[in-house]
Design brief:
six-stranded antiparallel sheet; 8 helices; alpha+beta; elongated; about 40% helix; five-stranded antiparallel sheet
Length: about 290
Amino acid sequence: MGFDLPGSELIHSTFTWCVLSAAFFGAAASRATRRSGGRNEERERHERAVSLKWTWVSLLLSISVLLALTGVFVPGPEKVRDIRLLYVFLAASALFFLAFRFKRAAGLPVLVLGATSAVLLLLLLRSLVAFTGETEIARIRVLATSQQRMTLEVVPRDEEPVIAELDGEYFAPIVKVIIFDDAYVFLGSKTWYRFVGVTSFRVERTDDGFRFRQQDTDLYFKRAAGISENLYGLFERYEEHIPGVKSVQVEIDLKRVREAAAAGSGVFETFDIMLQNDGGVQIVRRR
């Protein structure tokens, strides 16, 4: 799909799992700092209370660790290298510790503060994901190049691979995008897209230098990835009358296929087609 289901960006955010892990860590710390019983209790009852207390602490810590590991593997290990995660974890752990530890003394104020903080934190997480996030919409693998002709394997997101035979030395994904205003982005909205195909270009020498000339070989998918053509056409036709829409446009970015891919080395290039939330398309070489 060209857009994720509501809340799906939270599932793929490391901050979400960081906060959930901090909640159980704070609960474990609250349990660990509580007294296990009065001084005059029978020894056997006191030992049972102590054993139950540390059983709960161990269980809560285990869940916290499990959620932290989930936050590594679901969003991807490369997203864990963010120092903000440590600050969020420490702040959330302290908040949940106070909420669980002093819930009787604080009562309703702590509950209201916790609920308000959770809502604000969710909005913050959605806005962080939306402003800084990117979406992989396709993957392109170079199968062969020869005499300014290339063979590409194009794999759109959630679609079957397609083989493209194109002239030229540059390929360019054709992506139709709907970009929303920053206010919508703050609430978690992402750029909608429709990945319709791939075209190609060749560099030609002119009296003024060089220029790109589009070739006659194009690949247009029978079933484009992303939103429907009818929905895109509706936004394109009434762009000025739809609130919250910043721009409806077509993105075509060029990437050169290196000749080394056809030098007999057996190593072929692979590119990720990434959609930025400002509507730009970035072609990133996989390493």
